[in-house]
Design brief:
The protein is an alpha+beta fold. The chain has a domain at about 90-155: Roll (SH3 type barrels). The protein has helices spanning about 5-30, 70; strands spanning about 95-105, 110-115, 120-125, 130, 130-140, 140-145, 150-155. A hairpin with a 4-residue loop joins strand 1 (about 95-105) and strand 2. The longest helix is centred in the first third of the chain and has 26 residues, at about 5-30. It is flat and about 95 Å long.
């Protein structure tokens, strides 16, 4: 059985096809024209003077150094107040996180996450990271120094002890061993 379409369905299909073609043409033409300040009509308030020329930008971004106060007072902190000078947060570099420590008989290395966005750094004793020098790497912490200040970044976990060797299997007299797997 074949379905036959009515003239009404053909007309709707034709109109939808023409609409799609028209929209495609409008998108193509709009994408080919470069976007200029003259092509974008912005509402101008009556009190604002008209720009003298179109050669310069209307808005100029201030330098990033002017945003230092915003970075010092994080948006989502509970109080969003200026940090007090000499607070306890100055003693510890807050942006370091100890990811892991590898200790071998000849070397000691640590993996630290630091910065925003977070970056991983592989460090050894004596190396510097963000102005801090690694002074010691121990099984559960890394000691850092900067100027006269010292701090430690720890895992918060106890060091992992080496695995103890498995006890030897029990010794059975001949003929008294346990039967395994049904003992055929």
């Amino acid at each position: 059985m074949s379905e036959t379409s009515s003239p009404h369905q053909r007309l709707v299909t034709l109109l939808l096809l023409l609409l799609c073609c028209g929209l495609s043409a409008a998108i193509y033409i709009g994408a080919r024209e470069p976007m200029t300040s003259a092509s974008v009509a912005a509402p101008v308030s009556p009190a604002a003077p008209a720009p003298a020329s179109d050669s310069g930008p209307i808005f100029v971004m201030p330098p990033l150094s002017s945003f230092a106060d915003v970075l010092a007072r994080p948006l989502f902190s509970e109080t969003r107040r200026r940090p007090k000078a000499g607070s306890a947060s100055d003693d510890k570099p807050a942006d370091f996180t100890l990811v892991g420590i590898v200790i071998s008989p000849t070397e000691r290395h640590a993996l630290l996450s630091h910065g925003t966005p977070a970056q991983l750094a592989h460090v050894a004793v004596g190396q510097s990271i963000d102005g801090w020098t690694v002074t010691a790497i121990e099984p559960s912490r890394v000691l850092l120094a900067q100027g006269g200040r010292e701090t430690e970044i720890g895992t918060g976990k106890k060091p992992v002890e080496p695995a103890k060797p498995a006890p030897p299997p029990p010794h059975y007299a001949i003929g008294t061993e346990p039967i395994a797997n049904g003992g055929d």
